[in-house]
Amino acid sequence: MLKFLTILKVGLKAIVRNKLRSTLTALGIIIGVACVIAMIAVGGGAQAAVQQQISSLGTNFLMIFPGAATQSGARLFTGQSTITEDDVVAVRNESPSVAYVSPMARSSAQVVVGNLNWGTSIQGVGVDWPFIRSWNVDRGGFFGDSEVRSAAKVCVLGATVARSLFGDENPVSQTVRIKNFPFKVIGVLESKGGSTMGQDQDDTVVAPYSTVMKLLKRTTKIDMFMASAVSRDAVGEAQAEIEALLRQRHRLGPGQDADFQIRSQQEIAQTADQTSRQMSALLAAIASISLLVGGIGIMNIMLVSVTERTREIGIRMAIGAKGRDILTQFLIEALTLSVAGGALGVALGIATSRFLAWKQQWPIVLAPAAILLAFGFSAAIGIFFGFYPARKASRLDPIDALRYE
Amino acid sequence: MTDPAVIRIEDLVRVYTMGEVEVRALDGLSLSIHPGEFVAVMGPSGSGKSTFMNIVGCLDRPTAGHYFLDGTDVSGLDRDERAEIRNGKIGFVFQAFNLLSRTSAIENVELPLIYAATAHTAKGRADKARHCLEIVGLAGREDHMPSQLSGGQQQRVAIARALINQPKLILADEPTGNLDTRTSREVMAVFQELNERGKTVVLITHESDIAEYARRVVVFRDGKLVEDRQVESRRSAAAKA
After folding, report:
1. What's B165's domain CATH number?
2. pLDDT (tens digit per residue) in B144-183
3. For residue B119, which residues of chain A lie inside 8 Å, CB to CB?
4. Using an 8 Å Cβ cutoff, are B174 and B95 in contact?
């Protein structure tokens, strides 16, 4: 142990003796580690941003459309909706994994206030819709069961619509005209921003589905319905339960094509999540290459160092250093360079990430695991690339090494 | 049975193969050197002096024959075992001094202790090194770098390094080859003094006047021992200095 400490000191002294060279050698690792950490931070930040956008949609809800889904697309939904309000009620009452349901009737119309008008989508929804979409009302309130039952002419405005038609004025309790019907504004939704697809989610008006069906669409059928699972993990179960229940209610035998289609937000979320994951993996991979190049730099310098110090190695061997001692000495040098470089690289990487977050307003996530990994990797690189030169040194023949000029 | 000889060599053969050609650098050499002797090994270049020195110094192994160092047959030892022998039983002094550059005198002297079988503390090493530097007359120069020392002083640092593990044998390969006459005599005085204190010294040289400082001269030619004599009128380096 004492001997190891002494050899450690010998190795460290050699590094200190060649300050410029040691710094330049370590620089490869410093830049490599800093790159990896900054790239993982940026990639992680992007991923977190995507996930946040997705969860703003509500990740545990399902959309149930009428009509069959066929791979060929030959038999698309054309005629009457096959899903009824009764189906929605049945799902709410009989599926244990379903927390909320909301029938949906969608339309689009001009919304008029005085001489201002705004073309937007009108969503007819049920009372549970805010819970499904986890979308709260910013000002005013939401409609309840009585408004749905009576098909009341009330609506809740999306933030964009509210701003366009009312500016800084409070729209609550004002009246807007939709297809010439006066609707009382009872609330304004909080702003959600753009969706992952780039649509402005706030450009919408929400009204009771019964009102939309009766007044705006003149139909007795709902377009589709939404359902949310009791938890994120229960989405699959909820989907299965809804499917089984609807098949039973629609009297579909096994093997018969369903006359409805269930899509989960999770599928969309997974795709987006996967994309951003691949992106950050790519960034990390590119950064790892620079770390690898840094490792080769260490190997290069260590090889030069071994050749340059052949005489020294010869002297040490002549006075009794074993191959193992020489190996240890050179490994320690390589390891110290890479570990010191790794530590500085971690500092530089964190600083760079912080700088990007501040200057470019990029979302960054500094994961301690990633930092540890980059640091550990740099140490491993030191051992890996230091081993060959060190072994070369340890295998020198003392007679030749002493004669070396 | 204890072997009184420090070095006992029996029919030593060392053959180098260079492509097709075989060179017999040592060709059946036998020689014994006893404790307290001061032997100068002489011979023209190609006589096998260096090969002898490498084998005696446990840097190389003989092709055939036996080499007993301090009673142990060391001709069959592997790399690590030979390193241990070099560290503990042999003190080397080279023609080119072979000190580590940019390393202080005292650290150069300490060097063999780092690789010694018994561990030493930093202070223990420094104390021993300081003592050895005193023996060779370099007290007060502990912190000088080799580049700040004269050739003679550097060689004395090397001798101090050779002494630190209290070896059975001091092996000097042309120690005065890079030195002028006056410094050569200084260095030889150190060897003579060490010999007087009981150290066994084997000196390889091609200068006959340097050989005259020894007590016994052996001459090699073509890998064989051709002359082995006691020095009649031994020169004293100290007296003339």
Report:
1. 3.40.50.300
2. 999 999 999 999 999 999 999 999 899 999 999 999 999 9
3. 1-3
4. yes
Under an 8 A CB cutoff, do A315 and B98 touch? yes
In this structure, how many other beta carbons lie within 10 angstroms of the beta carbon of residue A248? 11
DSSP 3-state of A1: coil
**What are the structure tokens assigned to A288, written together?**
């790892």
**DSSP-derived 3-state class of residue B200:** strand
Chain A residues within an 8 Å CB radius of B57: 318
Does a structural domain hold residue B7? no
| Residue span of the structural domain in which B114 resides | 35-60+77-240
Q: What is the DSSP string of A184-247?
A: EEEEEEPP--B-TTS-BTTSEEEEEHHHIIIIII--SS-SEEEEEESSGGGHHHHHHHHHHHHH
Distance from the Cα of residue A390 to its chain's centroid: 43
Q: Write down the ipTM of this complex.
A: 0.93
In order along chain A (405 residues), what is the average pLDDT of each group of 10 residues? 78 84 88 88 83 69 75 49 85 90 91 89 92 87 91 92 89 91 93 69 91 88 88 85 89 82 76 80 84 86 89 92 91 89 92 89 84 87 90 91 85
Contact B108, B133 (CB under 8 A): no
HSE (side-chain half, CA atoms, 13 Å) at A276: 21
B100 touches chain A (CB under 8 A): yes
Query: Does residue B70 lie within any of the structural domains?
Result: no
* pTM across the whole model: 0.70
Q: Taking CB atoms and an 8 Å limit, are B98 and A323 in contact across chains? A: no
Number of domains making up chain B: 1
B27 assigned to some structural domain: no
What secondary structure does DSSP assign to A334-371, as a single string? HHHHHHHHHHHHHHHHHHHHHHHHHHT-------HHHH
The verdict on residue B65 lying in a domain is no
